[in-house]
Batch of 2 targets.
Target 1
Amino acid sequence: MREEILNFLKENSGYISGEELAQKLGLSRQAFWKHIQDLRGLGYEISAVPHLGYRLIKIPDRLYPWELAYRLNTKFVAKKTLYYKNVASTMDIAWELAKKGFPEGTLVCAESQRRGRGRLGRVWLSPYLKGLYFSIILRPKISPFKIGLISLLSSIGIVEGIKRDFDLPLSIKWPNDILAKERKLAGILMELDAEQDRINFVIVGIGLNVNTSKKEIPPEATSLYLLLNKRIDRVKVFKNILEEIERTYLSFQEEGENFIISNWRRLSYLYGGRVKVILPNREIVEGRVLDIDQDGALLLRKDEGIVERILSGDVEKIV
Ligand code: BTN
């Protein structure tokens, strides 16, 4: 009911009569008033003027599920959303839900995380109300060997989602970073539950620095706020990203690996460049990035001419 009242208010830029609205929704005047008070408690600014009625003045800067759902154009992503003010990590919650059988597209988001984590045991700083910290449950029908493609397609979705509203020089750094002006803007962490030849589910965790100031993020990072010099509507970027992630996921299902490979080439930070890779066993390899393959692995031509297939590691561009 609260959502219905809110939608009426959103769709009317002027005042609407409380009496009429209450009647339309089959509510008593007291019940209607109570909902208005609840909305105010959630941070909505609603003005009430005798004889004129109600008008929505301001929507709070919160990732409320009904705000994300409002005119969200997706088939399955964020059809179910769990929202938290503060959690240890959205990854753990999404994992538990996926184990319980929650459907593909289920979204877990939080306004802050106490123990946000990144790849290779790193920390993901998640200050309150400053970024997007979320995890999506996916159940792709692909071989576990191809899991790298899911992180690449998510990166493509993030870049396209941000680009809808902002003209920024964004690029994808294999395997899981989004860069702007050589600084990290967003990162992706995947956690996988799989058997030998099938994926049960994968949790795609995404952290994006939105309104974060310099002192709240690591020195090598950046935020939309720092890049654009203005405060950003987190809900709007979030919805664009969710829609684009779904679009990329569906295109991958229809068109296959080549869809990801060609988009990766177009957006890649590393394609054709000389790099140094630190492998998980600490071994270091150097060479030129030739491409990614059908499994999303990085193909590196070493100086001796041999092409090495890299499945995971930390990559640095060298000149
Ligand atoms: C990386 O760059 O290494 C990946 C960072 C992923 C951070 C996100 S924030 C939401 C989700 N919850 C976490 O604890 N981590 C991911």
Note: Residues 89-91, 113, 116-119, 122, 124, 133-135, 176-177, 187-189, 205-207 surround biotin (CB under 6 Å).
Target 2
Amino acid sequence: MKTFVHRGQITKVVFGSGTRSRIPEEADALGCRRVLVLCTPDQTDRAGRMADLLGAAAAGTFTGAAPHTPVEVTEKAVAHARSVAADAVLAVGGGSTVGLGKAITARTGLPQLALPTTYAGSEMTPILGETEGGSKTTRRLTDVRPRTVVYDVELTHTLPAAVSVVSGVNAMAHAVEALYARDGDPVAFLMAGEALDALARSLPLIARRPDDVEARADALYGAWLAGTCLGTVGMALHHKVCHVLGGTFGLPHAEIHTVVLPHVVAYNAPAAGEAMARIARALPGDDPADALFDLAGRLGAPRALRDLGMPESGIERAAELVVRDGYWNPRPVERRAVTALLTRAWAGERP
Ligand code: NAD
């Protein structure tokens, strides 16, 4: 018998195609009358259309969301939200925009609605990562979860194939670590397995044809489940390594996850048999780490940290940071083994 604790989600989720048209009624259901729409600079037009759709319930747009939620951007956005008397924010975008929404919620208490446009999954988590003075800190704050998440598959059609595949593997990484989480539970395990199945079958189709409607729906469904896993159970070595590499060398988020995942799976394989068996169901092959490495190759995704701009001289520093703060992982985190893992990932070698 397995003893477990399962934490249910409080977020309302609407999933479908064309569902963004429901945003006004979802805002109304939360009692929101002045919604500030958030986006990154390159989704300005889309955010403007959402403000138009909200009509009298819109309080304008803030178009300055940036990767890793810089505190100076948040401060500007909070000042803007106050100046227009916003009573809610609507994040239209990926993890960067949802992150800004969470940072605003943390400072003002304003509720967030989210309309995700990538597969990062931040909209389903209570995790707020922020950068200040070049260093990134992460907190779990239950209240920063968006109240309502509307997944509209149509919005993902514009995500370029190359960005889609790394964003999709980023989602797979949440699912993989949920399979062996210390506080894992049967529901999280089911969601993680289903997420891996959906992403493993859809990403190769999207890489070939980014306008494949069914594959896009499948990938977003997998991303929702994977994000829910990330928000439900604790992550381990993979997320720690990616956090260190992103924070220390400023490497791109989803690409780091794509390169590192096969190597961490190889590292943890001896200590996580049940998880490995489930990954192998989604990605058939003799070895789950090899299957993930081959998948990245087939998708044309990066497989070497050096190709993302990490200096070879950074390997030892990264290993030191990864092992410095003790934390749980199915296999103990040892400095020499982590250095070997990073060396292979840096060079793009098979795990
Ligand atoms: P992103 O939000 O930075 O988006 C990447 C780029 O793609 C941006 O320029 C964006 O404008 C563009 N884009 C997004 N959707 C698009 C679409 N449909 N069509 C065309 N262009 C589009 O990238 P991301 O990978 O979604 O998020 C990364 C950030 O999210 C990182 O800062 C990461 O730390 C954070 N994150 C946080 C959590 C969490 O739980 N807190 C989880 C995952 C990621």
Note: The mean pLDDT is 96.
